[in-house]
Amino acid sequence: MATSQQGSSAQTELVDYQSDAGDHYLSASSGTGFKSWAFTLDHKRISLMYLAGLSFALALGGAFALALRTELLSGDGFFGWSNDTYNQMFTLHGAIMTFLFLIPGIPAGLGNFILPLMLGAKDVAFPRINLLSFYLWATGAVFFVATLLIGGLDTGWTFYTPYSIETQTAVMTATAGAFVLGFSSIFTGLNFIVTVHKMRSKGQGWFQMPLFVWSIYATGVIQILATPVLGITLLLLMAERLMQIGIFDPSLGGDPVLFQHFFWFYSHPAVYIMVLPAMGVASELFTTFSRKHIFGYGFIAMSSLAIAFLGFIVWGHHMFTSGQTPIASTVFSFITFSVAIPSAIKVFNWLATLYKGSISLESPMCYALSFMGLFLIGGLTGLFCATTSTDIHLHDTYFIVAHFHYVMVGGTLVAFLGALHYWWPKISGRMYNEFWGKVSAILVFIGFNVTFFPQFVMGSRGMPRRYHHYIEEAYQSFHVASTIGAYILGVALVIVLVNLVGSIKRGRRAPANPWGATTLEWKTQSPPIHHNFHEEPDVPAIYEYENTVYNREIGGFVDRKVVKGA
Amino acid sequence: MNPLFFASDGTYWFAPPGTEFAKEVIWTFNFILWVSIVFFVLIVGLCGYFVVKYRRRDGVDPEPSPHHSTLLEISWSIVPVILCMMMFWSGFKTYMKMTTPPANTYDIQVEAQKWSFGYTYPNGTFSKELHVPKGENIRLILNSKDVLHSFFIPDFGVKMDVVPGRFNTMWFNAPEVNEHIVFCAEYCGSDHSDMISKVVVQDRADFEAWLEEEGNYVDRMSPVEAGAYTYDIYGCSQCHSIDGSKGTGPSFKGVWTWGQSRALEGGDSVTVDENYIRESVLKPKAMIASGYEGVMPSFNGQLNDKKILALIAFLKDVNGVPQ
Amino acid sequence: MSHDDHGLSHISSLKTLFAVFALLLFFTAVTVGVSRFELGRWDLTIAMTIATVKAVIVSMYFMHLRYEKALNIVIFVSSILFAILFLGISALDATTYQDRIKEYRAVQPLEDN
Amino acid sequence: MSSANSVADKPDHDAHSEFGEEWHLAHHFHTPEQQFESGKMGIWLFLGTEILFFSGLFVAYALYRFNHPDLFEFASGYLDTTMGATNTVVLIFSSLTAAWAVRCAQLNQRKGLIIALAITLACAATFMVIKYIEYKHKIHIGLFPGAWSPTEMPDGSAFDPKVAPYNLSIFFGIYFCMTGLHGIHVLIGIGLITWLLIRSFKGEFTDKYFTPVDFVALYWHIVDVIWIFLFPLLYLIQG
Ligand code: HEA
Ligand code: HEA
Ligand code: CUA
Ligand SMILES: [Cu+2]
Question: Which has more pLDDT, B322 or A155?
Fold first, then answer.
C-alpha cells in the first residue's frame, strides 16, 4: 500500500507508491512454474515473453547483418560466399528484422506492459487474445527458423513476383510465417484499440491519455486496416506457387506490378506501424527528462492519427520505376510529402518541450536525443526518395538502404532501447547501471552513424542494393567504414543486453517512480502487482511535474497529492 | 578495372553527370540537401543549446514557460509545406521530361534475362553492350524474358524496371562520347550483382561502323571464332564453363560425348548431336539435362541459324570433335 | 444504447427477421432474372447495386447495425472505405498501364497463348 | 471521436459478486456492460479486418474484369447459375436462422436456440456439399489452375484453345481463390456453430450470457454478405 509522509504544506501529502511487501507479478504469489508463464493471461508476463523473443529475433537478424557486412568488406566477397548465400543473408536479415522484430517490437513488446498501466486498467481488454497473439508470434518465429533450416529464402523481404514464384527456396514456409505474424499483429492492434476505448480508468478522457497511448492507438488503426491486405497478398502468393493461379505471374498472363501494389498497400503503412510507437516513446521521454509539460499535446496526438491515415495513400512511392504510370507516380509523390508535415510537427514540438525545461541526461534521454537526430536524418532523406526525379536515380541503391535504416534503426530501434531503459525499473524492479547505460547510448549513436552514413554517399554514387559483388575502386572504402560501424553497433547492443540482464541480479532496487514521470504506470509499485494497482488510481494531471518531488532517501520521486477535505 | 562513372570531377555525392537529366537530378538533390542541412543544423543545434542551457541543476526550478502555441504550430507546419511543394515541383518537372520521350527517337530494344542485358537495333543487329550515337534522343524499349530486372545508368540519372509481359520505355540523350556502366537494379536472383553492362556513346559515324561490324561478325570470323564470340557476348559463359567445371548449367567440356546418349531429367535420354544443341538453345525447357534445373532462358529470336552453327562448331572444337 | 433495449443489446422481432428474409429472396430472384437480359455495361451496375442493397439490409437488421453504437458503425464503414481506397488507387494505375501490356501481347507469337 | 464512450462516468462496481456467476464477468472488467461492449467492439473490428482481407481478392477481380471483359464473359459460362443461386438461398436462409438463434438466446428460449443453430449448421453443410459438386465438375474438366488441362468449352463441346481467351486460367485462379477462401470461412463457421450447439445443449446461454452466439452469428452474416457479392460477380456475367 501507499505509504504517505507529511508534506511541507498542510494541504498536500507526499505519496510513495512503492511497497515493501514483496508481492508482485513475478513473485511466487503469481505463480512461478512453467504453466504460470505458458498460460498466463497477465499482460505483463506476456510482455516479458515478447521481450525475450524479440531479443532473440534482433540477435538473429543482427547476426545475419554482421555476417553480410563482413562479406561486403571486399568487392568479390570477404568469405567468398556464393551469390545465393549472400542473397539469402540479406533476405533473412530484412524479413526477420521487420516481421519478427520491428513490427511487434514496441507495441507488442513494451506496449503490452505499459498500455494497461497507463490507462489504470487491470489488463488489456482481451487477455486471452493477447496470449494468442504471442503464440502466433512464436509460431511465426518457428516458421522463420524452419525457413532457415530447410533451404532459406532468397526473394528479398519484398517477395516480388515472378521471382518469388519460381525460386526453389523455402518461400512457402516464409510466407506462411509472415502470414501468421500478420495475424499476431492484427490481434494486438485490435486488442489495444478496444483497450484504449473501453478500459480507461475513471475520469480519464481522451485528452488525459499519455501520448504513448495515442501513438499505440494510431498504430492499432494501421495494424487493423492494413495487415489483412498483407495476409491476402501472401495467401495469393502461396496460391501462385501451389496452383499457378496466374494473377501475379506474367508467364500466365498475370501482372507482377499488381503484386507490388498489393505488397506496398500494406508495407508502406507498416513503416508507420514501426515508427509511430517510437514517436510515442520519444514524446514521453522528452517531457519526463525535461520535467516540463509536453509542448503541443493536442498537435502531437492528432499528428499520430494524421500520419496513420495519410500513410495509406502514398504506397506507390516505392514503385516510381516499376512501370507504374507517370500520373500515378506524380500523385503518389505529391501525397507522400504530406506525411512529412505531421512528422515535422512532432519534431518541432519535442524541440519546444526542451525549451526552458530542466533537462537531465539520463540514459533514456540520451537515447531520445539520439533518436531525434537520427530520425531527422532518416525523415529528411525520405524527401529525396519522395521526389520523383531524384528517386528515379536513388531507387534500389544504398541510399534507400541508408534511408530506411536511419528511420528503422536510428528511429525505432533507438527509441525501443530508450524505452527499454526508461521502463526497465518498472518492468524488472531494478535499476541498471547508469554509466553503462550512457556508454551504450553513445556507442549506438556512433556505431550507427559510422555504419549507415557512408551508405548514403555510395548510394547516390550509384551502388545498387542487394549486391554481393561491387566495384572496389568506387565503393570499397564506404563498405569498409560501414562494416566497422556495424561491429561497434553490435558491441553496443551486447552492452545493453548485459547491462539490463545483469541488473536483475546486481541492480539497486527501483523506486516506484525513478524519473519523476507523471503518467499512471509510475503510480504503482515497481514491479507492479498482478492486478497492477492496489486501488484504482486517480486520473493524474499528466505532464504536470510540480506533482512529483525528488526524494533523496528512496532515490526516486514521490507524488505530491492534494489531500481532499484537508 | 577503372570505375567508369566515378571520376574525380564528380561532386562529393555524384559522379559527373552524363546527361541533362542527371544534371537536373543533381540540382534537385542539392536543393533538398540544403533544405535538409538547414533544418538539421537548426534543430540539432537548438537541441544541443537547450540541453546545455537548461540542464538540470540542484535546487534550481525551471522558469515557467507555455506549453502550447497555435501560432507556432501553424508556422512550423506552413514552412515545410512550402518547401515540400518546391521539392515536388522541381522533381516533377524533370520527371515529366523523363517520361515523355520526344517524337524523333532512335529506338533500341533491350531484352533482359537472367543475368544479362541484350540490345537489338532497328536493323536487327544484336549486341551485348549498348552503343548509342551521341547527342541523339535514344529510346529504350524494355522487356524481360524471365523475372523483374531494372535498367540503371547511374551517370545518366535514369532507371526503369524491365518487366516480363509488357514493354516499359525510357529515353535519354547523351551529349558526350564516353563509356558508362549499367547496373541491374532490381533484385533478380543469384547473379543479380553480376548483371552489369555498358553504354558506349559514340559519334554517329563510329556508331554506324560499329553497327555494321557487329551485325556481320559471323561472316568475318571463322566458325569456331564466331562461336567463341557468341559464347562470350550472349552470356552462355554465365552458366556453362569450357573447362569442365560445373556451373548453373553443365560444362561444355567433357560432360557429354558427341554422338552418345544423354540422360534427361525424368528418365528419358537423347542423342547429343547438332539437333540436340539447336533444340537446347531454342527450346531449353523441352529437354532438361539430368541433374540440372530448367533455368536456361530460350535464345529463340536472338540467335539466328548462322550463330547457332557457329556455336556448334565452337562446341565441337572445345570437345575435340572433328568438324 | 437505443431505446428498445433489453438487457445488453437489441432483440429483433420475428416479424423483422422474416421480412428481411423475404426481401433478400426477392432481390436474389431479381438479380438472377435481370442477368438473363442483355444489358451491356449496365449489367454489372445493376448486379452490384442489388448486391449492395442486400448487404445493407443484412447488416442493418440481421447484424443489428441499425441499433449499434455509432462507433461500431464507423468501424465497419471505414473498413469498407479503405477497401474502396485500395481498389480505387490500384485501379487508377493498373487500368492506365494496360496499353503497355497490350502492345507486348500484340507482338507475341500465338503459340505463347 | 472524443465523445466516444469510456467507462469513465459509470459508477465503479469493483465488487464482482454484485453480478453473480451468470454474467461471466472477467476480473479485469468493472461491469457486464463494459465487458459486453468491449467484446462487441472487438468483433466489429474483426469483421472490418475480414472485409479488408477479402478486399485483395475483389481488387484482383475488379482489375482483371475491367481489363479483360471478354475473359470474364467467356469463363463465367462454365459456372452453373442454378447451383450458385441455390447456394445463395441456402446461405440467406442460414443467416435468418442465425439471427433467430441470437433472438432465442436473448429470450432464454433454449429449445428454439438449439433448433435454430441446428438448421444453420445444416444449411452450412448443404452449401459445402453443393460447392463440392461444383468443384468436382470443374476439376474433372481440367479447370483447376494447378492441373490445368481444359477439355470442354462452356457449352460442353471439345476445348478449342484458339477460341478460348489466352488467360482463361486466371479467371479460374480468381474463382477458386475467392470461393475457396469463402469456403474456408464456411468451414470455420461450421466448427463454431457446432461448438455453440454443444454449449447450448448444456444450457450455458442465457439472457445474461449470450455473447458467443451473438458474435458467431455476426461472423456468419459477414460470410453471407461476402457470398452475396461473389454470386453475381462470378455467376451472373452476361455472355
Ligand atoms: C520506420 C520506417 C520508415 C519511416 C518512418 C519512413 C518515412 C518516410 N519514408 Fe521511407 N522507407 C522505409 C521505412 C520508413 N520510411 C523502408 C523500409 C523503405 C524501403 C523498403 C524497401 O524497398 O525495401 C522506405 C523507402 C522509401 C521510399 C521508396 C524509395 C525507393 O525504394 O525508391 C520513399 C519514397 O518516397 C520513402 C519516403 C519516406 C518519407 C517521405 C517518409 C516520411 O514519413 C518522413 C517524414 C519525416 C521528416 C520529413 C523529418 C521531420 C521533419 C522536419 C524536421 C521538418 C522539415 C521538413 C521539411 C522541410 C519537409 N521511403
Ligand atoms: C528492423 C529493421 C532492421 C534492423 C534493426 C537492421 C539492422 C542492420 N542492418 Fe539491415 N535491413 C533491413 C532492416 C533492418 N536492418 C531491411 C528491411 C533490409 C532490406 C532487405 C532486403 O533488401 O530485402 C536491410 C538490408 C540491409 C543491408 C543491405 C543489404 C543489401 O542490400 O545487399 C545492409 C548492409 O549493410 C544492412 C545492414 C544492417 C546492419 C549492419 C544492422 C545493424 O544495426 C545490426 C546490429 C545488431 C546486432 C549486431 C545484433 C546484436 C544484438 C544482440 C546481441 C541482442 C541484444 C538484445 C537486446 C538489446 C534486447 N541491412
Ligand atoms: Cu537482373 Cu537484377
Ligand atoms: Cu513507403
Answer: A155
